Amino acid sequence: MKRAIAGLTLIEVLIASVMIFTVMTVVSEGYQASLLASRKATELDVVLAPLPLVLNKIQTDLRETTDKDLSELQGDGTILKVGYRYRARSEKFLSPVPGYDFATDQIRDYAPRYHLFLVTLTLEFGSTTRTFRYREVAWLPELE
Questions:
Q1: What is the pLDDT of residues 17-34, one digit of tens each?
Q2: Same domain (yes/no): 19, 74
Q3: 127 in the same domain as 67
Q4: What is the DSSP string of 59-115?
Q5: Which pLDDT score is estimated for 3?
């Protein structure tokens, strides 16, 4: 008489177990990586959200300064729970292009009044820090 196979052999069980654990490990690592990427993206989004407000604040600070001998300006603060600090260093102080004065019928030269600043801005939220460098133009009121 033939005997029917009633179960699985030990080798078959071990191979199935290794395959299951391998699949679980790959899925788990993929899930952890996507969770970490999601957290970083969320933090970056929070850090960059107040950027237009911070840039506007820096522009206002630079343009409200009427010191023609200004070489550096610094500031810091918090907007929408994001800390920021900036340092603006004057690179150039130039005059406007000469213009034609219709009243006197002559070319008019202007005194220097335009500052070109190199701004270094740092935004911080939690463990995320972003640093930006850009140039900003600010001008003094007309000096006569």
A1: 999 999 999 999 999 999
A2: no
A3: yes
A4: HHHHHH---TT--EEEEEEEETTEEEEEEEEEEEEEPPPPEEETTTTEEE-----EE
A5: 64
